[in-house]
Amino acid sequence: MIRIPPLRERREDIPLLVRHFARKYALRMGKQISTVPSAIMHKLMRWGWPGNVRELENLIERSVILTTGSTLAVSLPHKMNGAIDAAEVVTSRSRRALSTRCVRLMVA
Asked: What pLDDT sits at residue 78?
């Protein structure tokens, strides 16, 4: 049996995974995301990741969707001890931007 330790036990993998998922979803969505702020990367590395790699991938996918420039915008909940709740992560600014985009698509 092969045992792969949970993500919280291999934090050194997080920057590689973040960059991989950011590229994957940026390419899929036709976006150019070239930067992940170091402060964000440090927060991601300190997170407990109870949902493991899938939780990280989902967070990065949502972040790419909501990012409007070339710098990945990631919002994490204030509490660092639980699973990431998508509704809590999406900031009010991001909600407004997403609502505006949806309205534009509906009008077009």
From this structure: 66
